[in-house]
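Still learning folds. Look over my entry:

…
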Amino acid sequence: MMRRIESRIDRQSETYRRFRAANLARLEAFRRRQQDARFERPQRDLDRLAHHGKLFVRDRIERLLDPGTPFLELSSLAANGEYDGDAKSASVVVGIGVVSGREVLVRADDPSIKGGAWYPLTVKKNVRALDIAIENRLPVVHMCDSAGGFLPLQAQLFADRVSAGRIFRNQSILSQMGVPQLSLVFGHCTAGGAYIPSLSDYSVILRGNGGIFLGGPPLVKAATGEIVDANTLGGADVHTRISGVADYAVDSEDEAILLGREIVAQWTRGEKARIERREPEPPAYDPEELYGIIPDDIKIQFDMREVIARIVDGSLFHEYQPDYGTTLVCGYAWIWGQKVGILGNNGVLFNDSSLKGAHFIELCNQNRTPLVFLQNITGFMVGREYEARGICKDGAKFIMAQSCSVVPKLTVMVNGSFGAGNYGMCGRAYDGRFVFSWPNHQIGIMGAEQAANTLGDVKVRQLERAGKTLTEAELDAIRRPVLESYERESSAYYATSQLWDDGIIDPVDTRNALGIALSAALNTPIERPSYGVLRL
């Protein structure tokens, strides 16, 4: 049995209405950006696809998925601030869906953007997609249609750890783990892209449009002088009748997709990790009320329990140590019938809230309960008193417990995420299975005003030692560029563009996103818990 959270939100208050108006405006801006990234393309590019008899990438995915099932798209606004806006969604669509009754990760090249060429952030998104497949033992369907690496930026996508080579390494690891992969080759797979179908368990290639080759016709001519057309070099008949690189040749994209669904239907379903489950029920409070709860100013505090009440089943919540370490809310709940342990920020992390969080994480690992982190954190408390009390030591306990967790971890950035608080609350660097953000989210080593004031103070002290002083205008000239830079680079759109999260989501969709992510995460067995050395 659990108690229902008692909401104290007044829907008629001026504050609620103000917050709601601000968040609906943010949401409208988010939807416009997402619509543009997903669907807006120059007509000439759509005409080119139609001329070659190709479906738009999202139409391919829709036909692949089981009718009426959800699709959790990941990083839909990746690269939204890069490459002059040319690489929408980083030129590849990634998400988790259901194909022939199996949970799969779908990775689909978008040939409406530079022929599906890979930009540096395309590579990063592909690597992240396959990391997700490895971490959650998700079978993969690759929908291949790529011209290969975007050559003007080749230095940024070839040799580093997050490189095209890492994609193929990840494919190899999936195979080693026994996680199946299928490639549907709708267009050219050129250069490194040729390894994706070659490293897949099954591959289907389309006659006419499909091609697999390490070097396309122009490169072959430049390198060897040989003149050869794409079909003769690496078309469907070459690879299904002669080389054996592909398994099946088909005559249409619809036929390829139907055959792909038939292949996936042969895959054995893995067993889910055992956790506590119950019949799901919707929250007792309307999730749309989240728009009136989240402030219009990052500095305004709110009660995280009000957020939890609109995400979890029945708004039921067993709160752990409610009277201790009150700036961190911890407790058990259910999301779509799956038991979770929730940690949500209600202020800065003090010594007591850090210790409370560390102990609660240990309890969740002990009883195999996945963790959900709801971030709205300015960091760990600073100052002489707290240093003397060992805030570094207690914060380290929290970080250690979280880092060494063996249960699945999911994070939602519901507002601010600053300083080392991002680390303790399972930011991107801490291997959470999924990290989602809301449109109002801000992230940085510190807030824009704190950074500007800090750098201004440093400059003032430097000049004072030299016997000089700054005028207000000179000080403002130092602070203004810092403020502008931090405000841009701490926004949710900058963060998601760089793939610091797995996508911005509408707050109302949080429950569904977490439900799908939890289901995917439970494909991986949960190991026995163990920890490093805690400084006592």
User: Anything to note?
Assistant: The chain has a mean pLDDT of 93. The radius of gyration is 25 Å.
